Amino acid sequence: MPVLLSTTAPKPLPLPRSTRTVAEEVRRLADGGELTLPLPGVDTGRRWTALAALGRTDLAVARLAEGHVDALAILAEAGRPSVPDALYGVWAARSGGTGAELTPNGLEGTVRFCSGLTALDRALVVATTPGGDGSTCRLVDVDLRAPGIVREPEHWQAIGMDASDSGDVRFDALEVTPDMVVGPPGWYLSRPGFVLGGGGVAAVWLGGTAGVVDDVLASLASKADEHQLAHLGAVHTALRCAEALLADAATRVDTAPETDHTLLMSTCRAAAERAAWETLDRVPRITGATPLCRDHAFAQRLADLQVYVRQHHAERDLAALGRAVLTEAAPR
After folding, report:
1. CATH code at 102?
2. Residue 103 lies in domain
3. Sequence-distant (≥ 6) Cβ neighbours of residue 44 within 8 angstroms
4. What percent of the chain has pLDDT over 90?
5. C-alpha distance from residue 177 to each of 83, 181, 249 (Å)
6. Alpha helices in the chain (DSSP H)
7. Cβ contact 279:304 at 8 Å
8. Do 226 and 295 form a contact (C-beta atoms < 8 A)?
9. Backbone angles phi, psi at 111, to 5 degrees
10. How many structural domains are present in the chain?
11. Mean pLDDT of the chain
12. Which residue would you say has higher pLDDT here, 139 or 258?
């Protein structure tokens, strides 16, 4: 079984960060081959280990890197080559009734939560068709230098993940040619890699959680009292339980890559989210207010994790998971 979290914490990037330094770091990693990862279902453990290490180092860097490697995996699954040296993202959010739409006039609409807003070269944009739903969505490979793209970074007001270069993108009749469309209608959501990609995000959350614990361990040294130790023990247990589940899941995926792993990946995401929130709840009780107020890097790490882990839709995702568990247990 793979071990997703090394016993040695990776060296964090220097802070304070900026959008430019985060984007430059992701491009450096890509140019150096460090983002050329095994595809999901081939060596999933090594893929998730790399993603967890990125999250443990810097969640803003990990966000852009995870989007890039997910895009490369999607293109590989479609049998399409990626553009050499291009930095990719996947822009798929349909928050609050927004989202891209593929119309006779081209690509239109607003997509929220687009990370790498100003730094990426290309994005795979998920778009519905007029009157259609997710089952008929199309995936469009967009050159972000094309006309008809309006970037709106001012809509990102969060302190958490503020270095991820995120915001809204408005598509204004962007021309879409047939060669830009990836896969048939509905392919993006129905392909096996869609589910496995969600497990990769969980690995990043796991790494981000481990990074917070690294900071706590460094600050405590040998001066912890019994209350701090109790919280530390609980955080350690939650983190290692989630890690063990993801490591086992990676092995299961590689053993049967064509199997429907939806229930397994949903469970991994829920476990990683739970470990993150256990940590976010207990760590301030371990440290007190001082590092939250006087250590920018530490406070930023907590804020980043709090925002990033909300890609999990809380009770909605848990209800869907419970429904799947009940269906799985039903007599056939």
Report:
1. 2.40.110.10
2. 88-184
3. 38, 196, 199, 249, 250, 251, 253, 254
4. 86
5. 16, 7, 39
6. 19-31, 44-57, 59-77, 187-190, 192-220, 226-255, 262-287, 290-294, 296-308, 314-329
7. no
8. no
9. -115, 125
10. 1
11. 93
12. 139
